[in-house]
Design goal:
Blueprint (H helix, E strand, L loop, with lengths): L1 H13 L7 H16 L1 H9 L6 H12 L7
Helix pairs in contact: 1-2, 2-3, 2-4
């Protein structure tokens, strides 16, 4: 999660992201993406073909971190 926090912090510093709480934002990103990088959850996802795909989750996360009023 430290690396994700660094990425979010860099995004905040550059103005690409907006959050008042970088550690919380990093934790939320990790929780949202866990199904795509945790080996057990990847295996379980094969049996459950519903839910958002990784590209949709990335779009959602980036939109949630975008500066308020920014257009995608």
């Amino acid at each position: 999660m430290t690396m994700i926090g660094q990425v979010v912090a860099e995004g905040v510093a550059s103005g690409e992201c907006e959050t008042d709480d970088v550690p919380l934002a990093a934790m939320c990103v990790c929780c949202a993406m866990e199904q795509f990088f945790h080996p057990q959850m990847i295996a379980e996802a094969v049996a459950k073909p519903f839910g958002p795909k990784i590209d949709r989750m990335i779009d959602f996360i980036l939109a949630s971190l975008a500066p308020r009023g920014a257009k995608n």
